[in-house]
Amino acid sequence: MTTARPTAAPIRRYVDHVMGMPISLALRGRHQDDAAARGAWAEAMAALHDVDRVFSTYRPDSFISRLARGEVDVDACPPEVAEVLGLAELARQQSGGAFDVRRAGPDGGLDPSGVVKGWAVERAARPLRVLADTDFCLSAGGDLVCRTLDPMAPAWRIGIEDPHALDRLTAVVPVRTGAVATSALTRRGAHIVDARTGLTPEGVASVTVVGHNLTWADIDATAAFARGPDALRWLATRSGRTGIVVWADGRVDTLAPSGLGS
Questions:
Q1: Using an 8 Å Cβ cutoff, are 197 and 97 in contact?
Q2: How far is the C-alpha of 75 from the C-alpha of 127, rounded, in Å?
Q3: Are 247 and 177 in contact (CB under 8 A)?
Q4: Residue 42 lies in a domain
Q5: Does 1 map to a domain?
Q6: How far is residue 230's CA from residue 245's CA, in Å, rounded to a whole number?
Q7: pLDDT one-digit tens code per residue, 177-222
Q8: 7 domain-assigned
Q9: Does residue 6 lie within any of the structural domains?
Q10: pTM (predicted TM-score)
């Protein structure tokens, strides 16, 4: 997923890396390249670094790694851990068990990454929301949250990668204020499984969800992908979501196309 430059107002862009992925910010409006903008960007990155210290499954000293090994319990962790696990349990129930951060079997364990990414970026956007008269688009590895305050400003144009050819776009989605998340296997390999079977779903190549909140757009994109052939039907039950499902055979289905970009 890429963020295309809207026409008209000038944009200031910032880029950094954390949690094993690129983080990019586009600002336009009153605070795009001043002390307030740079301070908000620094706060956003600090928030993501804090999340990495608590939730990284690649860091043996993170709270989530220690929790997975049974060295601490949830009460001994920062309160954010209980919050994320609560969201994960709700997602498990609402997905019919297809989405689950706890996996059974010898290769199982605790991996809340399917919740943490969108949740973390929503939290990181808080200092950006304080910037007066400023539009923003904050992206983490392609999943993003954006805001447009200026009624005369164009929508942010979000390019959705074609999972069958990453140098092409499946669609360009205009979003003024909201969130976009895509789940696919093309960049990270077979990291999404249907928790009911422990297998990577077949038949679906990518799921993109557009919603009001990146926490749930990201969860729903992953949950829909995990449901495999049932991705579109399940996504249609999710209130306030629109989306695009690209199937393994190249077909593309769009959910509620009139709502995209609203």
A1: no
A2: 28
A3: no
A4: yes
A5: no
A6: 11
A7: 999 999 998 766 567 899 999 899 999 999 999 999 999 999 999 9
A8: no
A9: no
A10: 0.89
- What type of residue sits at position 9? A
Q: What are phi and psi of 157, to 5 degrees?
A: -100, 115
Give φ, ψ of 65 to 5 degrees. -70, -40
Q: Which domain holds residue 83?
A: 12-257
Residues 6+ positions from 142 with CB-CB distance below 8 Å: 1, 2, 161, 182
The total number of structural domains in the chain stands at 1
Q: Which residues contact 236 (CB under 8 A, 6 or more apart)?
A: 255
> Residue 44 is part of a domain; what is its CATH number?
3.10.520.10
Is 149 in contact with 133 (CB distance < 8 Å)? yes
The amino acid occupying position 63 is F
Residue 54 in tokens = 């608590």
Q: Which two tokens stand for residue 228?
A: 């495999």
Establish how many alpha carbons lie within 13 A of residue 137's alpha carbon, considering only the half-sphere containing its beta carbon. Answer: 25
Helix axes 79-94, 214-226, angle to 10 degrees: 40
Determine how many CB atoms are found less than 10 A away from the CB of residue 137.
25
